[in-house]
Amino acid sequence: xxxxxxxxxxxxxxxxxxxxxxxxxxxxxxxxxxxxxxxxxxxxxxxxxxxxxxxxxxxxxxxxxxxxxxxxxxxxxxxxxxxxxxxxxxxxxxxxxxxxxxxxxxxxxxxxxxxxxxxxxxxxxxxxxxxxxxxxxxxxxxxxxxxxxxxxxxxxxxxxxxxxxxxxxxxxxxxxxxxxxxxxxxxxxxxxxxxxxxxxxxxxxxxxxxxxxxxxxxxxxxxxxxxxxxxxxxxxxxxxxxxxxxxxxxxxxxxx
Length: 256
What we know:
Strand order of the largest sheet: 4-5-6-7
Number of helices: 0
Mean pLDDT: 78
Strand content: over 45%
Radius of gyration: 20 Å
């Protein structure tokens, strides 16, 4: 996936077969994509933005060269569970599943509820979502008795009444950076953004830690994590990328 040329916004989507070494093949022209498409066993799930809270989910079979529309509407949280494709419907607050034969399947259900989330992610095993006020990150797995809150931003104190403020002053505003965003589930870890940086929550121990410095970028690629420190190197394209395998990282120490 790369930014569309000429600075017009949107992205272009390509596929490349590392085994054959053939030239990359363009799958999609300029379009707004909801997130980086998940890939599993030659199947690519692409979520294209159609309008406000309306997206289109298509399944690309890279070997067969076919494309099938799976769903259209308030689609979010797309991922694979084995051969089944999962996606979250914001309206119903439920996970949906479709098998490789195109038939609907039953999906284990978390309970965020309809209209209560602003961002949802699933990797087929772990589902995580951000609350409507963007201050709480909740995680759920099918073998858990209930969803678990793994990160919570303490709300700021209520602003003083206008009558109690000194003349010429304004009430304090909420810091827009003190919000949780962009969760991504990968194995026993959930990666998310908070206050200009990226954090990781370890579901094995219930701990979390900051992963990057300010303004860095982190991208989940299958079972790997790509980190770009955005160090403003010169020339700008020479960044010191790091590729991590989260499944090989030791558990974080539990919280005291």
